[in-house]
Every structure is written in structure tokens, then in C-alpha cells.
Specification:
CATH superfamily of one domain: Histidine kinase-like ATPase, C-terminal domain
Distance between the termini: 132 Å
Structural class: alpha+beta
Strand order of the largest sheet: 5-6-7-9-8
Number of strands: 9
Number of helices: 11
CATH architecture of one domain: 2-Layer Sandwich
Largest sheet: 5 strands, mixed
CATH topology of one domain: Heat Shock Protein 90
Radius of gyration: 56 Å
Shape: rod-shaped
């Protein structure tokens, strides 16, 4: 551009200003074109290349070309000449571009051949604007591709998760059905187990009754007859033999009574659970030397027959464990009533055991071991808890619900005048 100086002719100043207006017009028009990201690349190149001739000093002999990768846009009557002004730009490592301006004939020498210095700035600005525009479009396209790819992956993953979720729901439902079946089987087994206990107890009671009524009475009659014969016998040797026979009969009667009590305590059915437990404690002390202390709070405790039988058998098993396995010298049995439940505790002073030994202790206890006690008590609506430490003895607690119907009936009888 010619320097504006007071001595410069007026027409030259006007010419220079017109050139700058043309350059600004080209830049503004290019900005307007590059604001639309929806235009096809070919149309962007065509519109920009048409802005080149009017923006240069000699529009009538100016030709232009824009190259982007494999695309190319030219002005009409374009041809290459040796009067070239060019600017390269790079959109990405794989995509480059070039802006070219040719004069079709020789013109006066300026700052860069026949081209003005301002025209160098202009072509560099246009090249930089094209670079920024296509970089933005390329980044936007990459972002859109990434977005579409992400949406596709999300849809695919969502579909997979929906399938997995459906399969998981089906599996959970199947497991719930299996769990319900297992619980049903467990309830049936517990009910069957309780029925087996009651059936076994009835059979034991029948056997005990037969022992008492048949064999017991027979032994008693035999003892009476031996006594009568002994009174009438005059031979000393025979009298002494009858005395020995009577002694054997006494031992047989005592053994029969003990066996009858072990099979089925008649006290349990005639006088109730607490009387049977008290007799059991006395029997353990008398027969095995295990000091067994029994105490009760004296309150009424109406119980279903199966509950009484279960608690009696459980306490007997716990006492046997204290004697055989814990090697205890003393046991305390307590029975009390609280909140509509019976609570029976059995505490011994034996050697105790660790938590890991409870299973072994249960297996050594036979058919009515600790695990069996817990299962049977649970089936009757109660609970069984056992705690022990090596060298600190063992505490077992059995709780079971009372018979509310019997309790209510008794309360009604007590309120009657």
C-alpha cells in the first residue's frame, strides 16, 4: 500500500483506499460464508474462490484456485502463469489445502512481484480462515461420529443389560420358587419330625404301660408268693433260697421301674412337665451321682402335649451331655414363665466347649442332639440357645409358647363365682 502523505496525489490516496475496501469486503464476505457449517465443502470452495478476483488490484486479469485434499475450485478462465501468489494451510496431518492467485499477464512490480504487500496479508488471512473453518467442521464431524457411536454403544449395552436383567429376574424368580419349595419341605419335615416324636413317645408309653401293668404286676405277685412260701417253709436251706429269690425280685422290680421311667415318664402325663423334670433331676443324682438342682417359679404353665414331650426329652439329653461329655459335677435346671412363654435353662459346671465344637457335640449326642433340639423347638414356635466356653461350663436356654387356649380357659374358671 502506498504511504499516505500530504505530498501524495489525491487520486493515489483514493486508489489505495479503494484497494483496502476491496480487501475488507473479501474478508467480510468470507466470514459470512464460513458461518454456515451446513454448506457442502464444494460450495464453500466455489464461493470463496469467486471472492478472489474482485479483492485483488487487477480483477480483470486475476484468476484464483482453492485446493482442499482431492477437491479443487477455480475461477472462470483459470490458467497457471508465472505470476503466482499462494498460501498453504493444513487442517490435519492427513488433510492440507492451498490458496492460489494468478495474474494472467505481466503487471508493474510491487512488494511481491506484481502483488501488493496487503494482498499477501489478505491471502494469508483467507488461508487461515479456511484452515480454522475446516478444522472446526472436521472436529464437529468427529464429535458427531463419536456421539453417534456412543449412542449406538449405549443402545447395544442397554439392550444387553435388559436381556441380562430379564434373565436375572427370571433366575431370581426361579430361586424364590425353589426357596419356597425348600421352606415348604422344611416345614413338612419339621411337622413330620414332631409327629415322629409324638408317635415314638406314644409307643414308648404303651411299652412302659405294658411293663408296669403286666411284667410289674407279675413280678410283684411273684414276690408275694415267694414271701408266703418263705413263711410256710420249715427247711432253713429252702427259706434262705426264697429270701435270695425275693431279693432278686426286688432288683427286677426296681430295674423295671427305672426302665419304665426311661421309656416314658408316667409323671409327665399325670402330673405335668415340671414334676417330671424334678423327678428326672432326682433320678440323675441317685443313679449317676450328678448333683442336679431343680427350681420352678411355681406359676401355671399350660403346654401342648408335644411341647411338654419335646422339652422333657431335650432336658434329658442336655443332662446326659453334661454327664457324658462335659464331665460336670453339678447342674442347675430352672423353669419359669414370662410373657406367655415357658423358659427352661440348664446350666452345668463342666469343661465347656468352643463355638467350633458345637457341631461335634451335636453329632455325639445321637438322634436328639443339639441341632435336633433347635429344629424341633423352632417347629413348635420356640427357640433354643446354647453358649459355652472352654473351662466355663455350658448354658442352654429353651423357650416355647404356652397353650393360650388352656390358659384362657383356666382364667375363665378362676373368675367364675
Amino acid at each position: 500500500m502506498h504511504a499516505l502523505h500530504p505530498q501524495v496525489p489525491r487520486n493515489e490516496v483514493i486508489h489505495a483506499l479503494r484497494e483496502r475496501v476491496k480487501e475488507l469486503t473479501a474478508l467480510h464476505s468470507t466470514v459470512c460464508i464460513l458461518q454456515d457449517d451446513a454448506l457442502p465443502v464444494r460450495e464453500v470452495l466455489d464461493r470463496v474462490v469467486r471472492l478472489i478476483p474482485p479483492a485483488w488490484q487487477y480483477p480483470q486479469i486475476t484468476a484464483g484456485r482453492v485446493i482442499l485434499g482431492g477437491l479443487e475450485s477455480r475461477t472462470r478462465c483459470f490458467r497457471k502463469t508465472r505470476w503466482l501468489q499462494a498460501a498453504d494451510f493444513r487442517v490435519s496431518p492427513a488433510l492440507g489445502g492451498r490458496l492460489e492467485v494468478y495474474y494472467l499477464k505481466k503487471m508493474p512490480q510491487e512488494a511481491e512481484g506484481p502483488f501488493l504487500a496487503e494482498e499477501r496479508n489478505l491471502i494469508n488471512s483467507l488461508a487461515d480462515m479456511l484452515r480454522a473453518y475446516f478444522e472446526r467442521r472436521q472436529a464437529s464431524a468427529a464429535l458427531m461420529d463419536a456421539h453417534r457411536d456412543l449412542e449406538k454403544r449405549v443402545r447395544e449395552r442397554t439392550a444387553e443389560l435388559e436381556k441380562l436383567n430379564a434373565a436375572l429376574k427370571a433366575e431370581v424368580h426361579e430361586r424364590e420358587l425353589r426357596q419356597q419349595e425348600i421352606l415348604s419341605y422344611q416345614r413338612q419335615l419339621r411337622a413330620l419330625s414332631a409327629e415322629v416324636i409324638l408317635t415314638e413317645e406314644r409307643e414308648r408309653r404303651e411299652i412302659a404301660t405294658d411293663l408296669h401293668d403286666v411284667i410289674g404286676q407279675t413280678l410283684a405277685m411273684a414276690k408275694m408268693k415267694a414271701g408266703a412260701l418263705r413263711g410256710r417253709c420249715l427247711a432253713p436251706e429252702l427259706a434262705e433260697d426264697l429270701k435270695g429269690l425275693a431279693s432278686f425280685l426286688d432288683e427286677a422290680i426296681l430295674a423295671m421301674r427305672n426302665l419304665t421311667f426311661q421309656l416314658a415318664s408316667p409323671i409327665l402325663y399325670e402330673l405335668g412337665l415340671e414334676s417330671a423334670l424334678e423327678r428326672l433331676a432326682e433320678d440323675m443324682h441317685r443313679r449317676h451321682g450328678l448333683k442336679t438342682e431343680f427350681r420352678s417359679d411355681g406359676l401355671r404353665k399350660p403346654l401342648p402335649t408335644e411341647t411338654s414331650v419335646m422339652i422333657f426329652k431335650a432336658v434329658r439329653e442336655l443332662l446326659n451331655n453334661s454327664l457324658k461329655h462335659a464331665r460336670a459335677s453339678g447342674v442347675r435346671v430352672r423353669v419359669r414363665r414370662t410373657s406367655g412363654r415357658i423358659v427352661v435353662t440348664v446350666r452345668d459346671d463342666g469343661r465347656g466347649f468352643s463355638a467350633g465344637e458345637e457341631r461335634n457335640c451335636a453329632s455325639r449326642s445321637g438322634g436328639f442332639g443339639l441341632f435336633s433340639i433347635r429344629e424341633k423347638v423352632s417347629h413348635l414356635g420356640g427357640a433354643f440357645r446354647i453358649s459355652s466356653r472352654p473351662g466355663a461350663g455350658t448354658l442352654a436356654v429353651i423357650t416355647a409358647p404356652l397353650d393360650r387356649r388352656k390358659d384362657a380357659a383356666k382364667d375363665t374358671d378362676l373368675r367364675r363365682p
